Amino acid sequence: MKIKVLIVDDSALIRGVMSEIINSQWDMEVVGVAPDPIVARELIKQTNPDVLTLDVEMPKMDGLDFLEKLMRLRPMPVVMVSSLTENGSEITLRALELGAVDFVTKPKLSIQSGMREYTNLIAEKIRIASRANIKPRMLVAGAHGTHGEALAPIRNPLTSSEKLIIIGASTGGTEAIKEFLMQMPSDCPGILVTQHMPEGFTRSFANRLDKLCKISVKEAEEGERVLPGHAYIAPGHSHLLLVRSGANYMTKLDQGPPVNRHRPSVDVLFSSAAVSAGKNAVGVILTGMGKDGAAGMLEMKNAGAYNFAQDESTCVVFGMPREAIAVGATHEVGPLNELPGRMLAYFAAHSSRALRV
Protein backbone atom coordinates (compact mmCIF):
# COMPACT_ATOMS: atom_id res chain seq x y z
CA MET A 1 0.00 0.00 0.00
CA LYS A 2 1.38 3.38 -1.01
CA ILE A 3 1.32 6.38 1.32
CA LYS A 4 -1.45 8.67 0.11
CA VAL A 5 -0.43 12.33 0.22
CA LEU A 6 -2.56 15.45 -0.15
CA ILE A 7 -0.67 18.67 -1.00
CA VAL A 8 -2.08 22.00 0.19
CA ASP A 9 -0.23 25.06 -1.12
CA ASP A 10 -1.33 28.27 -2.79
CA SER A 11 1.65 28.17 -5.19
CA ALA A 12 0.98 26.20 -8.37
CA LEU A 13 4.77 25.84 -8.78
CA ILE A 14 5.19 24.27 -5.34
CA ARG A 15 2.20 21.99 -5.90
CA GLY A 16 3.75 20.81 -9.16
CA VAL A 17 7.25 20.29 -7.77
CA MET A 18 5.96 18.52 -4.65
CA SER A 19 3.77 16.27 -6.80
CA GLU A 20 6.76 15.39 -8.98
CA ILE A 21 8.90 14.58 -5.91
CA ILE A 22 6.26 12.48 -4.17
CA ASN A 23 5.12 10.56 -7.25
CA SER A 24 8.75 9.68 -8.03
CA GLN A 25 8.91 7.63 -4.81
CA TRP A 26 8.10 3.93 -5.00
CA ASP A 27 6.05 3.93 -1.80
CA MET A 28 3.92 7.09 -2.04
CA GLU A 29 1.54 8.89 -4.35
CA VAL A 30 -0.24 12.22 -4.54
CA VAL A 31 -3.99 11.71 -4.25
CA GLY A 32 -4.89 15.37 -4.52
CA VAL A 33 -3.65 18.97 -4.60
CA ALA A 34 -5.42 21.99 -3.13
CA PRO A 35 -4.68 25.73 -3.49
CA ASP A 36 -6.29 26.55 -0.14
CA PRO A 37 -7.79 24.91 2.97
CA ILE A 38 -11.36 25.23 1.67
CA VAL A 39 -10.62 22.95 -1.28
CA ALA A 40 -8.46 20.77 0.98
CA ARG A 41 -11.38 20.04 3.31
CA GLU A 42 -13.37 18.47 0.49
CA LEU A 43 -10.39 16.55 -0.83
CA ILE A 44 -9.69 15.09 2.62
CA LYS A 45 -13.22 13.67 2.64
CA GLN A 46 -12.86 12.33 -0.90
CA THR A 47 -9.33 10.90 -0.79
CA ASN A 48 -8.76 10.02 2.90
CA PRO A 49 -5.01 10.82 2.73
CA ASP A 50 -2.39 9.28 5.04
CA VAL A 51 -0.30 12.48 5.16
CA LEU A 52 -1.06 16.11 4.39
CA THR A 53 1.60 18.66 3.40
CA LEU A 54 0.46 22.13 4.37
CA ASP A 55 1.72 25.60 3.48
CA VAL A 56 1.64 28.17 6.25
CA GLU A 57 0.50 31.34 4.48
CA MET A 58 -2.49 30.86 2.18
CA PRO A 59 -5.59 32.76 1.04
CA LYS A 60 -9.12 32.19 2.40
CA MET A 61 -7.86 30.50 5.57
CA ASP A 62 -4.49 30.75 7.31
CA GLY A 63 -2.58 27.46 7.45
CA LEU A 64 -2.40 27.59 11.25
CA ASP A 65 -6.15 28.14 11.60
CA PHE A 66 -6.78 25.21 9.28
CA LEU A 67 -4.29 23.02 11.15
CA GLU A 68 -5.92 23.80 14.49
CA LYS A 69 -9.36 22.85 13.17
CA LEU A 70 -8.01 19.76 11.42
CA MET A 71 -6.25 18.40 14.53
CA ARG A 72 -9.40 18.92 16.56
CA LEU A 73 -11.90 17.44 14.11
CA ARG A 74 -9.89 14.97 12.03
CA PRO A 75 -6.39 14.41 13.49
CA MET A 76 -3.91 13.23 10.86
CA PRO A 77 -0.16 13.47 10.13
CA VAL A 78 0.77 16.89 8.77
CA VAL A 79 4.11 18.09 7.41
CA MET A 80 4.32 21.88 7.24
CA VAL A 81 6.00 23.62 4.31
CA SER A 82 7.55 26.80 5.70
CA SER A 83 9.73 29.75 4.69
CA LEU A 84 13.10 29.91 6.44
CA THR A 85 12.66 33.32 8.03
CA GLU A 86 12.46 34.55 11.60
CA ASN A 87 8.72 35.03 11.25
CA GLY A 88 8.45 31.72 9.43
CA SER A 89 10.25 29.90 12.23
CA GLU A 90 7.88 31.33 14.84
CA ILE A 91 4.88 30.23 12.78
CA THR A 92 6.38 26.78 12.21
CA LEU A 93 6.98 26.28 15.93
CA ARG A 94 3.36 27.22 16.52
CA ALA A 95 2.35 24.63 13.92
CA LEU A 96 4.33 21.94 15.74
CA GLU A 97 2.62 23.03 18.94
CA LEU A 98 -0.75 22.54 17.25
CA GLY A 99 0.14 18.99 16.24
CA ALA A 100 2.11 19.05 12.98
CA VAL A 101 4.59 16.17 12.89
CA ASP A 102 7.44 17.97 11.12
CA PHE A 103 8.26 20.69 8.63
CA VAL A 104 10.17 21.34 5.41
CA THR A 105 11.69 24.74 4.70
CA LYS A 106 11.22 26.27 1.28
CA PRO A 107 14.56 27.25 -0.33
CA LYS A 108 15.29 30.98 -0.39
CA LEU A 109 16.45 31.18 -4.02
CA SER A 110 15.27 28.96 -6.89
CA ILE A 111 12.15 27.25 -5.62
CA GLN A 112 12.05 24.68 -8.41
CA SER A 113 15.66 23.48 -8.28
CA GLY A 114 15.86 23.99 -4.53
CA MET A 115 12.84 21.83 -3.77
CA ARG A 116 14.14 19.08 -6.06
CA GLU A 117 17.39 19.06 -4.09
CA TYR A 118 15.21 18.35 -1.03
CA THR A 119 13.71 15.23 -2.64
CA ASN A 120 15.15 12.72 -0.17
CA LEU A 121 14.41 14.95 2.83
CA ILE A 122 10.80 15.55 1.80
CA ALA A 123 10.24 11.86 1.11
CA GLU A 124 11.78 10.86 4.43
CA LYS A 125 9.66 13.31 6.41
CA ILE A 126 6.50 12.06 4.70
CA ARG A 127 7.42 8.43 5.49
CA ILE A 128 8.07 9.31 9.13
CA ALA A 129 4.83 11.28 9.34
CA SER A 130 2.84 8.35 7.94
CA ARG A 131 3.93 6.26 10.94
CA ALA A 132 3.52 8.98 13.56
CA ASN A 133 1.37 8.56 16.65
CA ILE A 134 -1.20 11.33 16.22
CA LYS A 135 -3.51 12.08 19.14
CA PRO A 136 -4.62 15.00 21.34
CA ARG A 137 -1.74 16.41 23.35
CA MET A 138 -1.72 16.64 27.14
CA LEU A 139 -1.31 20.15 28.48
CA VAL A 140 1.34 21.01 31.01
CA ALA A 141 0.90 24.19 33.02
CA GLY A 142 3.84 25.73 34.84
CA ALA A 143 5.86 23.44 37.09
CA HIS A 144 2.98 21.08 37.79
CA GLY A 145 2.27 17.52 36.76
CA THR A 146 -0.65 16.66 34.56
CA HIS A 147 -2.91 16.13 37.56
CA GLY A 148 -1.97 19.48 39.12
CA GLU A 149 0.47 18.17 41.72
CA ALA A 150 3.47 20.44 42.29
CA LEU A 151 6.83 18.90 41.55
CA ALA A 152 9.29 19.18 44.42
CA PRO A 153 12.19 21.55 43.67
CA ILE A 154 15.76 20.53 44.35
CA ARG A 155 16.67 22.43 47.48
CA ASN A 156 20.43 21.94 47.70
CA PRO A 157 22.13 24.15 45.10
CA LEU A 158 25.61 22.96 46.09
CA THR A 159 24.61 19.41 45.23
CA SER A 160 22.54 20.21 42.16
CA SER A 161 25.23 22.44 40.63
CA GLU A 162 27.43 19.35 40.12
CA LYS A 163 24.62 17.50 38.36
CA LEU A 164 23.59 17.84 34.74
CA ILE A 165 20.59 16.88 32.60
CA ILE A 166 21.37 15.86 29.02
CA ILE A 167 18.41 15.64 26.58
CA GLY A 168 18.15 14.39 23.01
CA ALA A 169 15.14 14.37 20.66
CA SER A 170 14.07 14.53 17.03
CA THR A 171 10.65 14.23 15.34
CA GLY A 172 8.00 15.39 17.81
CA GLY A 173 10.72 16.65 20.11
CA THR A 174 9.93 20.35 20.11
CA GLU A 175 6.72 19.78 22.04
CA ALA A 176 8.18 16.99 24.19
CA ILE A 177 11.10 19.21 25.20
CA LYS A 178 8.72 22.05 25.94
CA GLU A 179 6.55 19.87 28.19
CA PHE A 180 9.64 18.49 29.93
CA LEU A 181 11.33 21.85 30.54
CA MET A 182 8.12 23.53 31.71
CA GLN A 183 8.13 21.15 34.68
CA MET A 184 11.69 22.04 35.69
CA PRO A 185 12.02 24.10 38.90
CA SER A 186 14.16 27.22 38.79
CA ASP A 187 16.97 25.57 40.79
CA CYS A 188 17.27 22.42 38.67
CA PRO A 189 20.68 21.27 37.39
CA GLY A 190 22.03 22.74 34.16
CA ILE A 191 20.48 21.23 31.04
CA LEU A 192 21.97 20.63 27.58
CA VAL A 193 19.59 19.80 24.72
CA THR A 194 20.11 18.53 21.20
CA GLN A 195 16.99 18.64 19.04
CA HIS A 196 17.31 17.84 15.33
CA MET A 197 16.40 21.19 13.83
CA PRO A 198 17.88 23.29 11.01
CA GLU A 199 19.80 26.51 11.50
CA GLY A 200 17.44 29.47 11.73
CA PHE A 201 14.91 27.67 13.92
CA THR A 202 16.87 26.81 17.06
CA ARG A 203 17.15 30.39 18.31
CA SER A 204 13.41 30.97 17.90
CA PHE A 205 12.80 27.62 19.63
CA ALA A 206 15.01 28.60 22.57
CA ASN A 207 13.43 32.05 22.86
CA ARG A 208 9.96 30.52 22.83
CA LEU A 209 10.89 28.11 25.63
CA ASP A 210 12.49 30.88 27.65
CA LYS A 211 9.16 32.72 27.78
CA LEU A 212 7.28 29.60 28.91
CA CYS A 213 9.61 28.02 31.47
CA LYS A 214 10.68 28.87 35.02
CA ILE A 215 14.28 28.21 34.02
CA SER A 216 16.29 30.31 31.55
CA VAL A 217 16.53 28.82 28.06
CA LYS A 218 18.87 29.99 25.30
CA GLU A 219 20.58 28.84 22.14
CA ALA A 220 23.99 27.55 23.17
CA GLU A 221 27.12 29.53 22.34
CA GLU A 222 30.77 28.55 22.36
CA GLY A 223 32.48 28.45 25.74
CA GLU A 224 29.54 29.18 28.06
CA ARG A 225 29.59 28.04 31.65
CA VAL A 226 26.71 25.61 32.27
CA LEU A 227 24.70 27.00 35.18
CA PRO A 228 21.91 25.52 37.32
CA GLY A 229 18.47 26.73 36.30
CA HIS A 230 19.60 27.17 32.70
CA ALA A 231 19.01 25.12 29.54
CA TYR A 232 21.22 25.37 26.46
CA ILE A 233 19.79 24.35 23.06
CA ALA A 234 22.21 23.10 20.40
CA PRO A 235 22.28 25.55 17.47
CA GLY A 236 21.18 24.14 14.15
CA HIS A 237 24.58 24.67 12.57
CA SER A 238 26.77 22.83 15.13
CA HIS A 239 27.14 19.81 17.36
CA LEU A 240 26.84 20.71 21.05
CA LEU A 241 29.35 19.13 23.43
CA LEU A 242 29.88 19.26 27.17
CA VAL A 243 33.47 19.84 28.32
CA ARG A 244 35.09 20.32 31.70
CA SER A 245 37.25 23.35 32.55
CA GLY A 246 38.60 23.11 36.08
CA ALA A 247 35.60 22.97 38.41
CA ASN A 248 33.17 24.17 35.73
CA TYR A 249 31.18 22.52 32.97
CA MET A 250 31.32 24.42 29.69
CA THR A 251 29.67 24.27 26.28
CA LYS A 252 31.60 23.55 23.11
CA LEU A 253 30.34 23.91 19.55
CA ASP A 254 31.72 21.76 16.72
CA GLN A 255 30.96 22.14 13.02
CA GLY A 256 32.37 18.73 12.14
CA PRO A 257 30.55 16.41 9.74
CA PRO A 258 27.06 15.10 10.56
CA VAL A 259 26.82 12.04 12.80
CA ASN A 260 23.96 9.63 12.09
CA ARG A 261 23.11 12.10 9.29
CA HIS A 262 22.55 14.90 11.80
CA ARG A 263 24.31 18.03 12.93
CA PRO A 264 23.62 18.67 15.74
CA SER A 265 23.75 15.00 16.75
CA VAL A 266 22.41 13.54 19.98
CA ASP A 267 25.17 10.92 20.01
CA VAL A 268 27.82 13.64 20.00
CA LEU A 269 26.24 15.38 22.99
CA PHE A 270 25.69 12.15 24.94
CA SER A 271 29.22 10.90 24.27
CA SER A 272 30.71 14.18 25.49
CA ALA A 273 28.60 13.98 28.65
CA ALA A 274 29.87 10.44 29.29
CA VAL A 275 33.47 11.68 29.13
CA SER A 276 33.06 15.00 30.96
CA ALA A 277 30.31 14.34 33.52
CA GLY A 278 30.10 10.57 34.05
CA LYS A 279 27.92 9.76 37.05
CA ASN A 280 27.00 13.43 37.52
CA ALA A 281 24.82 13.31 34.40
CA VAL A 282 21.27 12.13 33.82
CA GLY A 283 20.37 11.31 30.23
CA VAL A 284 16.91 11.71 28.72
CA ILE A 285 16.00 10.46 25.25
CA LEU A 286 12.68 11.61 23.82
CA THR A 287 10.58 11.04 20.72
CA GLY A 288 12.39 10.81 17.38
CA MET A 289 13.06 8.74 14.28
CA GLY A 290 16.24 6.74 13.81
CA LYS A 291 18.96 5.61 16.19
CA ASP A 292 20.80 8.86 17.00
CA GLY A 293 21.53 8.91 20.74
CA ALA A 294 21.44 5.17 21.45
CA ALA A 295 25.21 4.58 21.31
CA GLY A 296 25.99 7.80 23.18
CA MET A 297 23.45 7.02 25.89
CA LEU A 298 25.03 3.60 26.38
CA GLU A 299 28.38 5.36 26.83
CA MET A 300 26.73 7.56 29.45
CA LYS A 301 25.36 4.54 31.29
CA ASN A 302 28.73 2.79 31.23
CA ALA A 303 30.29 5.98 32.67
CA GLY A 304 27.85 5.94 35.60
CA ALA A 305 25.03 8.19 34.35
CA TYR A 306 21.37 7.38 35.05
CA ASN A 307 19.15 7.39 31.95
CA PHE A 308 15.47 7.82 31.12
CA ALA A 309 13.55 7.14 27.90
CA GLN A 310 10.10 8.29 26.81
CA ASP A 311 7.68 5.40 26.32
CA GLU A 312 6.03 4.40 23.07
CA SER A 313 2.52 5.49 24.07
CA THR A 314 3.52 9.17 24.41
CA CYS A 315 6.08 9.39 21.58
CA VAL A 316 5.14 10.87 18.22
CA VAL A 317 7.80 8.53 16.82
CA PHE A 318 9.27 5.83 19.06
CA GLY A 319 12.44 5.22 17.01
CA MET A 320 15.18 6.85 19.10
CA PRO A 321 13.92 5.71 22.51
CA ARG A 322 13.34 2.20 21.15
CA GLU A 323 16.94 1.98 19.92
CA ALA A 324 18.32 3.22 23.24
CA ILE A 325 16.21 0.69 25.14
CA ALA A 326 17.24 -2.09 22.75
CA VAL A 327 20.98 -1.60 23.40
CA GLY A 328 20.42 -1.54 27.16
CA ALA A 329 21.25 2.15 27.59
CA THR A 330 18.27 3.12 29.78
CA HIS A 331 17.39 2.62 33.44
CA GLU A 332 13.78 3.81 33.34
CA VAL A 333 11.12 4.11 30.63
CA GLY A 334 7.97 6.13 31.20
CA PRO A 335 5.35 8.46 29.76
CA LEU A 336 6.48 12.00 29.01
CA ASN A 337 4.38 13.60 31.74
CA GLU A 338 6.01 11.40 34.40
CA LEU A 339 9.66 11.70 33.35
CA PRO A 340 10.41 15.11 34.95
CA GLY A 341 9.01 13.99 38.31
CA ARG A 342 10.88 10.70 38.20
CA MET A 343 14.10 12.47 37.32
CA LEU A 344 13.73 15.05 40.10
CA ALA A 345 12.97 12.24 42.55
CA TYR A 346 16.19 10.52 41.45
CA PHE A 347 18.16 13.73 42.05
CA ALA A 348 16.52 14.21 45.46
CA ALA A 349 17.38 10.64 46.52
CA HIS A 350 20.90 10.96 45.17
CA SER A 351 21.39 14.28 46.99
CA SER A 352 20.11 12.80 50.26
CA ARG A 353 22.57 9.91 50.04
CA ALA A 354 25.41 12.32 49.27
CA LEU A 355 24.60 14.42 52.34
CA ARG A 356 24.60 11.34 54.61
CA VAL A 357 28.06 10.22 53.50
TrEMBL record:
Q: Which reaction does it catalyse?
A: L-glutaminyl-[protein] + H2O = L-glutamyl-[protein] + NH4(+); [protein]-L-glutamate 5-O-methyl ester + H2O = L-glutamyl-[protein] + methanol + H(+)
User: What GO MF annotations does this protein's record show?
Assistant: phosphorelay response regulator activity; protein-glutamate methylesterase activity; protein-glutamine glutaminase activity
Keyword Lipid metabolism part of the UniProt annotation: no
Q: Show the active-site residues.
A: 170, 196, 292
Record-annotated Response regulatory domain positions: 4-121
| Keyword Cell membrane belongs to the record | no
> Domain remarks in the entry?
Contains a C-terminal catalytic domain, and an N-terminal region which modulates catalytic activity.
UniProt name for this protein: Protein-glutamate methylesterase/protein-glutamine glutaminase
Q: Which organism is it from?
A: Sulfuriferula plumbiphila
